[in-house]
Amino acid sequence: MPSLAITRAANAAWNPTYTPVGVFVGGTSGIGQGIVEAFARHTKGNAHILIVGRNRAAATAILDRLPKPPASTNTPEPTREFLHCDLSLIANAKRTAASIAIRFPRVNVVFLTAGEISLKGLDVGDEGVDRQMSALYYSKWAFIDELLPCLRAAVAAGEDARVAAVHTAGRGGPIDLDDLGLMKAMGGGIAGVRKLLPQMASYQDLMAEVGSSAVLRVVHYARYLLFPTFIFRAMSIADCGEYQLYALLQARPGASRAGGGGGDIGMGGEGDANWGEEQRLLWAHSEKVVSAVVV
Question: Which end of the chain has fewer surrounding CB within 10 Å, N or C?
């Protein structure tokens, strides 16, 4: 884990010659708020920032206090916008991402922090998947998939193209191929949650690994807010944002995983002889589920 001073210095050295576009899904508090504020701070306000979530009041308060570029800048005033989106439905994610793609042909940063694991139990919506799984996984998948052309366009223009999905990186376990979509785990009470936690980490790992085939930098990041009371005693939102931005900017090409302090923790699948097959089958399952939702 790099020191906070090293992290801040590295982030301050980031100086894009273009106005980057950042899409922050779940950026209205905690981790999401920290990365939004760090992104705005280190671009000196010269960035288009879109917060996607459900809490308009919280997002508006964050956006209103972000720095703006110096008055002498000749570029148009950057976008500061909140987009309401309930990620418990994949269709909502697809619509919102598609609307962003129309307005911003190039997107440079997609940061996904939405979704928490709860004890609510199985709740299957009209799309045929558990609503919690939609917010935790399928809607994130849909956002990345819909914005891939914009991310590829950024790469083609010589700009950054970076994606981060925040969850329990480094805590994964084998995928249950008889329960793709985790319906059984979601309906299994406490015992199901015990199975759910390590599998959800691996779902995110596999999404990052295969998604990186688009020549992007894709980071699966360890989620600080899984145990919020302990973490907030240990680190402020501002410092957490610095470490998140550092992990995003320092990520190597392709897929990687970062720990809570921004350091690379290596990729998943070690010791799992079925990792490649799990990756292939989960990818096919995810494509089928997301593509079946027509908007």
Answer: N
The rounded distance, in Å, linking the Cα atoms of 110 and 117 is 21
Checking if the pLDDT of 233 tops 80, the result is: no
Superfamily per CATH, domain 4-292: NAD(P)-binding Rossmann-like Domain (3.40.50.720)
Q: Where are the domains of the chain?
A: 4-292
Q: How far apart are CA 201 and CA 173, in angstroms?
A: 7
Question: What distance in Å separates the CA atoms of residue 263 and residue 169, rounded to the nearest whole number?
Answer: 12
pLDDT band at 203 (very low <50, low <70, confident <90, very high): confident
Q: Who's near 132: CB < 8 A, 6+ residues apart?
A: 88, 115, 117, 118, 120, 123, 186
pLDDT at 222: 42
> 3-class SS at 137?
helix
